[in-house]
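Progress report, Aim 2. The chain analyzed during this reporting quarter is listed below.
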Amino acid sequence: MINYIWFFMIFLGVLVGLISGNGEIISKAIVNSSGSTVTFIIELTGIMCFWCGVMKVAEKSGLTDKLSKILKPLLKLIFKDAAKDEKALGAIVMNLTANMMGLSNAATPFGIRAMEEMDRLNKDKEKPSNDMVLFLVLNAACIQIVPSTIISIRAACNSVNPGIIILPALISTATAATVGVLCSKILQRYF
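Predicted structure tokens for the chain:
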């Protein structure tokens, strides 16, 4: 459905531009935006490679392991069934740790594994367990210690200080995660 909406908006915009005599401006805009998009993607790829390298160093140095040791006792408090299963809890910890370090693409396999492990523990296969819902909320609203993707985008757009986003991102994501967990726990009692 969204494809039809986008097609309609683009088609209507081009049609109105052509009718109003702005066809040349439209074609120049398409060519210019295509070139700048390719340049932006190349710059972003380079910066993302840098941050992935930094995060790999953090992983090899044991920083992510230390972070996971801090997270485990907290996660045992909020997860009911998954906290009792070491495989499920391990996958949850690895997913959240990777997300906290801004490596959402590295977190995805751990997130899938965590959901599979929690589904194995789920008694009612027709609907997700409370732990699965809570994990989804935490995954979507994960605390960002290093928002590497946003820093990379800001750097690619020639920001004067791309890292200035770290503290506001930390505050906003911590708030979102806290509210998400509280809402999940409250709603678990009713559904």
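DSSP finds eight helices and no strands in the chain. Residues 35-188 form one domain. These observations will guide the mutagenesis work planned for the next reporting period.
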